Batch of 3 targets.
Target 1
Amino acid sequence: MKQKVFFPCYGGCEFGSLAEAVNYVRKMPGGLSVYIGDIVKYNIRFRDCLREKGIDGVIKMLIDEAPAVANEAKAIENMKWMWTDRMDEHIADYDIQCLPKDSLILIEDYLFNGLDEIDAHSEMYGNPTHRFSKWYSREGYIHNPAGLHIGNIWESYPTFDSFDDSDDRSYNNYVISKEPLTEEKMDEYCNRISASWNACMVHEYIPEELLPVLYWDGSSDNVLLATAKV
């Protein structure tokens, strides 16, 4: 039975099967070597296999689903390198997945109608990189029916010259809590969850008591979501 695959990719993030995804990225610069790591990191079934059976087990799983992977020696070596060097053979016990930003997104048993609804429910926001950091309560936000409290930790796109001054895009990390948000709680998120490339706070080193966290890079059609395993 074919299963869908999701990962950040130019032109979309949703594919009907791993074989379809492999055929698509093979035509792109860098080919499968560039994307194989994200395919594994952002799909729960591959993450589960990597956690339980290690790198050799997940490579076998990839080949079983898409036999063409067996002919991609460089991609397989890149996957091994990512696991041993970049990930230090560590994968979190929680789930991380890539999803279309306009899809139905299940968080804490509540089904959000895409990123727009998540943002509409965010009640506190702020940019901790500002010299005078301050958290702001958002006026006019929509109370979440399930009692969830959402904050948005954002950071502006970098500015390199005058042409960037009009770029109002930002990197956005949405933190979701069952408890009311306070400035102290927002500070805790920032102090205890590191931000990686492009201010992303969705990675393998999130304290599980601070899950869920959702990240949107401000311009793509997909989000990254970290949630505790059910």
Target 2
Amino acid sequence: MRLALKDVVTLFDVSEETVLKWIKSRGLPSNRIRSNWAFDRMKVLEWATETRTRVSPAIVQTKSCYPESCPSLVDTLTHGGIHYGITGEDMRAVFASITRVLNLPNDAERELLQRVLNARKSLGFMGIGDGVVIPHPRSPIVSNSSQASVSLCFLEMPVEWKAADGKPVSTIFMAISPSIHVHLHLLSRLAYILNDAKLRVAINPKAKPKRILELVRKAESEINE
């Protein structure tokens, strides 16, 4: 979804001058089309998440994911599951472990998914901070399943990932979706709720699945309100 300058002003509740300053001094992703500025909603949200810049919940509110209805994070996380003790001494090994535990259809090509995750040129990462990342492929991970899923994976040992805050990765959220629309919907909601430092700390390997789902449900309800 494309945003105009006035939309970004509203989302951050700042002046146009501040937004233009952020473009130059803080790297706010944007495109200049003649005399107008254009912004990609997902890139703006990623930037806000990585720079810890507060943004309005309006950025993740979606009326519909045509032709599918937008699933909730709680439902997709329940379906995808919360997995503890994911092994691996590096990211390639971690991805191999994750693809083995994902809740996918019986005919899903897990090896193909693993190759996609290992293809660094096609895979980016939304660095949430505090050891949390969301793999974010340029071509979203879309499965032949009609049901979207988000899997929360806690690593047995933190893995170095050259994160912006210098912390090794210990927690990975993996989204698998039936369409690009749903995929972007889930990623944007995940990034928004995880921008809350208290929530990031509360979602940890010591927390039981029921507690984690309660935290996500509460955070998501605040978006809807």
Target 3
Amino acid sequence: MATGAFRFPSINHRVLTVGRTGSGKTQAGAWLLSEAPFHEQPYIIVDYKFDELLNGCDRIKEITLTERLPKQPGLYIVHPTPEVDDDAVEAFLWDVWRKENIGLFIDEGYMIPQTSKSVRALLTQGRSKSIPVIMLSQRPAWITRFAVSEADFYMVFHLQHHGDKKRIAEFTPPGFAQKETREFHSKWFDVAKNNTFFLKPVPSAHEILSRIDERLTPPKKRLI
């Protein structure tokens, strides 16, 4: 299925990574994040489920929904409580929209209400504001339609439900959503280049954390 050359998303792109529980999407999302340009601007991880992988890196700084947004490049993580913090999350994301030049990594995007106007604005207008988005979801049928329609890249693992496959099929090449993959393998669609690939499993969690740690470590000053 490979055509053309594979490329990583840049600072103006949004990526949708979907797949059933246990399919490998969270680790794949972390891999994409490990190569994101967080050396150029802050990236904030919106982590509803306290994922073990990303919370295993001490260099990712924890913030709250009510404090000032970070100014320095790097990785930051916030832990909303589903439903309880819906209003706080909405206000937080509007702050991101206003501030601009901040990346977002949203794990289990279906936990943000589909009626969220901030998410709609971020997905439709974020390119001009340098607000890249990586969104993960086990159920693409449950997330806002804009997360699917506005994606520049699709990373699709095994999906069980017909409704999920149908949602992805609306915005990808014919037959793409229906093609089966091996365990922890995925399908990748680059919209602008119209390129599709089968991808092997991403690096291990240890390798991903090492890559993040390496990129977050300030370079040593040279002695004169």
